[in-house]
Each structure stands twice: as C-alpha cells, then as structure tokens.
Amino acid sequence: MAHRAFEHYVPVMNAIPVPMSADYSAMIREHEVWVLRDGHTIVASLVLIWRSDHLLLESVAVDPGSQGSGYGRKMLDWALKRAREAPVPEIRLYTNILMVENRDWYLRAGFVETHEEQRGDKHIVHMSYRL
Questions:
Q1: How many domains does the chain divide into?
Q2: Where is each N-acetyltransferase domain found (predicted)?
C-alpha cells in the first residue's frame, strides 16, 4: 500500500520516501497500524506512534486508485479521535518539503508548519495540530 501510494514522489524527491522503506512488521508489533477497507480491499493505512507529549502521525497512505475518495481524511479523523482519547495536546508529523500536495492537504486539515530539518538526503518539514 505505502509503496503504491508514495512511489510517484520518487522522481520528485530523487529519493525513496520513508513510508516506502518502513519495516511494517515492526510497526505493527510496536505501534498502532490501522487499515481502512472498502469491501474486501484495503484502501488506506495509518501508522500512529505514541509519545509522552504528542501523537506522531507516522504515515497516512491511500491506494492511488482510491485517492480523492475521502479515505485519507477518514484516517486523519481517526488519528484525531485517538489523540483526544489519550489525551495528548497535539498531533505531530513530518513530510518531505517537496511533497507539496501532502503539505497542502495537512495545512487544509488544520496543521501548521513548525520547522524544517535536513535529515540525511531528505529535507523535511515538521507540522503540528493542536488539539
């Protein structure tokens, strides 16, 4: 799922997006991994990592054939619900600065950009959503 959802960014970034190389077996063992199905087909996934003072939204991935159907927003709404139940004061995430569509999507959802960082071969932007 993540590979298909993010592969179009490889030529944009000239690098492999983090969700494409993540160890999902470890993610499932150590964190919260959620999937959304449409019938029997998985159309979206969500990885959440709990920290003492926030919830890290590690990844939202929507199958390319299902993008634009509201599944990403459903996953984000679920993350917000989980964070409010905890409770933690904010959700944080990071994304590559070149993933303009992702950044714009999170900004429209109420996230704000907090700072930028060079991490290896990737220039990332950190974002936060105060609950």
A1: 1
A2: 1-131
pLDDT band at 41 (very low <50, low <70, confident <90, very high): very high
Are the C-beta atoms of residues 30 and 22 closer than 8 Å to each other? Answer: no
Residue 77, both tokens: 């709404």
Question: Residue 39: which CATH number?
Answer: 3.40.630.30
Strand ranges across the sheet with 32-38: 32-38, 41-50, 55-62, 90-96, 122-130, 112-119
Residues 36/71, Cβ–Cβ less than 8 Å: yes
- pLDDT band of 113, cuts 50, 70, 90: very high
Show the domain range for 24. Answer: 2-130
CB 99 within 8 A of CB 9: yes
Give the CA dihedral 3, 4, 8, 11, nearest 10 degrees: 30
pTM: 0.93
